[in-house]
Amino acid sequence: MATPHACAALVDVFPDLLRTRRALVGTQNTPAIVALTVVLQHGPLRISEVADHLALDLSTVSRQISHLKQRGLLTSSPDPADGRSQRLSVTPAGLEELRTVRRAVVDRLVDHLDGWGDDEVEHLTRLLGRLTGTEPPPETVDLTDHQSSPTRHEMQLQGNA
């Protein structure tokens, strides 16, 4: 059982963890990308369900969803269970946007975790999944587009092969 002392040490790390996340993921379009990811992982969803997943106010999420729809990254269709509601789905352009963002974040993580072994990264991933209550990971869509351009690090590895 975790002690208050150990939990206090974890709380002390949270600000650094958030700062590191911002540095790795960036802040431009982060809320929109997170909303897009939620729809991809759990969709098709109603806007209210996206808001629930994000623990955000419906009006905030509605603005993000509107922006994503304007950019052609999300589409909506009538909810078969309730014709008054709409269900959101990720478009092919939205999937490509997520792939592009993911490749960039993976490249930054590879740089940031230089010197870490895969076993350490896997262990951290398991622990963070356990902390967030997502372990084992939910069913995910493979964002690896085997047809698209490789990450910067994949290109370097190919050059060194």
TrEMBL record:
<protein>
    <submittedName>
        <fullName>MarR family winged helix-turn-helix transcriptional regulator</fullName>
    </submittedName>
</protein>
<dbReference type="InterPro" id="IPR036390">
    <property type="entry name" value="WH_DNA-bd_sf"/>
</dbReference>
<feature type="domain" description="HTH marR-type">
    <location>
        <begin position="1"/>
        <end position="133"/>
    </location>
</feature>
<dbReference type="InterPro" id="IPR039422">
    <property type="entry name" value="MarR/SlyA-like"/>
</dbReference>
<dbReference type="InterPro" id="IPR036388">
    <property type="entry name" value="WH-like_DNA-bd_sf"/>
</dbReference>
<dbReference type="InterPro" id="IPR000835">
    <property type="entry name" value="HTH_MarR-typ"/>
</dbReference>
<dbReference type="Pfam" id="PF01047">
    <property type="entry name" value="MarR"/>
</dbReference>
<feature type="region of interest" description="Disordered">
    <location>
        <begin position="130"/>
        <end position="161"/>
    </location>
</feature>
